[in-house]
Amino acid sequence: MANYADYLAHFNFDVIYKPTKLNTNADYCSRIPSRTTQSNVNILSSEERDDEDGFERFALLQIQQLPLRADTIARETRKDPQLGKIVRESELGRNLTQLGYKAPETKYAIVANCLLFEHRVVIPAVLRQAILHDLHTAHFGVVKMKGLARSYVYWPGIDADIERTAKSCMECARFAPAPPKFSIHHWEYPNGPWERIHIDYAGPVAGVMLVIIVDAFSKWCEVKTTTSTTTAATIKLLDGLFLAYGAPVTIVSDNGPQFTATEFKTFLQQSGVKYHKLSAPYHPATNGQAERYVQTVKNALKAMGTTSENLQSNLNIFLQQYRKAPHTETGESPAKLFLGRNIRTRLDLVSPQNANTNITEKQQATFSPSFRLFTPGQQVFFLSGNPRMDKWIPGIISVRLGDLHYEIVYKSNHLKRHVDQIRCFEGSDGK
Predict the structure, then answer these.
(1) How far apart are CA 241 and CA 234, in angstroms?
(2) 97, 224, 346, 386: which has the highest count of C-beta atoms within 10 A?
(3) Are 353 and 368 a contacting pair, CB within 8 Å?
(4) Strand ranges (E), 206-345
(5) Distances (CA, A) of 19 to 14, 16, 24, 45
(6) Coil, strand or helix: which one is 354?
(7) Residue 189 — left, alpha, or beta (φ > 0 → left; ψ -120 to 50 → alpha)?
């Protein structure tokens, strides 16, 4: 034994020497605490009995964390008309399914005289308001309240009760964030061009204000410059557009004073506009058609280095390119939908001529004209145009100025006449 102790000491182990008679196998009876040593031994509580499984201990811990005591929940559960009956039937060992109960009642279990649904304590009706109050103490919203409740408590309709509690809280409503924004304001798509237009002011840009008018059907855009945003100036601009394109059925604008004035309303009625729709106050996205084009026009002019000197020139360039380019929403160019054709720009010079153009030009090249032809030096009679002279006077063709115009020499005077004002006389070569 001494050699063995030296061996263990070599590995720095603490060696406790006991005689052989003391090294006996431990059994259950040798571990029973005596009455004299009971004060030095932890007495097992009723919740920690050996015959209890882990789930029951977990359930008891769940109940102990609730703001209500377990005995209170158990007492009120027995008093509850519905839950009390389930407790009594379960204690008698009866099958709840055979008694007509359905889920989730058939999945209830009894732990510490309380009903549990899965791992959650079933709360009787009289205590539910207290649980809701505790769940809503931090005012952290419906989602987190539901998440917390699903860890501890349950009763039929608990989610609806949580939503009602959160939505009826005045403090939550007072400091609640804005609701999710609707990405696109829905407008019914018009039946044709210039049926509904959106109008808005932008600027100042290069010292002036811009009036943006957008056709909702074709996305055709009009941009007018003005130094005044009064009702009279707005009416003058729209009057010119109505003259060119006619009066629309509907006009959409914001709540600017120039659009809400009685004078503007009268002008629309007299022009034939049926509806004038105003966007909601403090919500410019309602007039999103014009709002988007305000940013588009301003950004384009800024990128083009617009000044007061080249403002109109840059606007013309922008509108020409914009009206010709296909729109992402319609798939067609604004000009195609608004005018029924694409506008021609210098970009069309790079496109090869199509078959129709080639045939047309070929026909024109081989076309035999039906009008009469005269040659230089040919003698003709032409209309004098002078009431003091004869109606027709003789002359000589000098130069052919075009298909239908000639220069005629008469007594050293060079006169221009149309082919309809020239006639042949006998002996001439005119055809």
Answers:
(1) 11
(2) 224
(3) no
(4) 208-215, 221-226, 250-253, 275-278
(5) 16, 10, 10, 37
(6) coil
(7) beta
Q: Are 86 and 131 in contact (CB under 8 A)?
A: no
Residues 369-400 pLDDT 10s: 667 888 898 999 998 888 888 888 999 999 99
Q: Residue 9: CB partners within 8 Å, gap ≥ 6?
A: 15
Q: What is the pTM of this model?
A: 0.47
- Alpha-carbon distance of 92 to 101, in angstroms, equals 15
User: What's the maximum distance between 2 C-alpha atoms anywhere in the chain?
Assistant: 166
pLDDT attached to residue 240? 92
Evaluate whether 278 touches 253 at the Cβ level (below 8 Å). Answer: yes
Q: Which two tokens stand for residue 387?
A: 């009431």
**The pLDDT value given to residue 38:** 41
d(CA 250, CA 329): 21
Q: 219 burial class (0-12, 13-18, 19+ CB within 10 angstroms)?
A: buried
Listing from the earlier edge strand, what are the strands of the sheet with 392-400? 413-418, 405-410, 392-400, 379-383, 422-423
What does the buried/exposed string (b/e) look like for 34-71 if buried means 16 or more CB atoms within 10 Å of the residue's CB?
eeeeeeeeeeeeeeeeeeeeeebeebbebbeebebebe
Joined tokens for residue 117: 């649904």
Q: Closest by alpha carbon to 33, among 20, 19, 44?
A: 44
pLDDT in tens, 106-145: 888 888 788 888 888 898 998 888 888 888 877 777 888 8
Q: Strands 392-400 and 405-410, how do they pair? A: antiparallel
Give the pair of three-digit tokens for residue 189: 């798509």
> Using 50, 70 and 90 to split pLDDT, how confident is the model at 195?
very high
- Who contacts 210 (Cβ-Cβ below 8 Å, separation ≥6)? 201, 202, 203, 223, 224, 225, 226, 294, 297, 298
Rounded alpha-carbon distances, angstroms, from residue 366 to 251, 359, 361, 371, 430? 53, 11, 9, 15, 21
Residues 6+ apart with CB under 8 A from 27: none
Record the tokens describing residue 208, joined without a space.
Answer: 């002036």
Q: In the 3-class helix/strand/coil scheme, how is 394-424 assigned residue by residue?
A: EEEEEEECCCCEEEEEECCEEEEEEHHHEEC
Q: How far apart are CA 143 and CA 136, in angstroms?
A: 11
CA distance 226 to 234: 9
Q: Using only C-alpha atoms, what is the Rg of the chain? A: 49
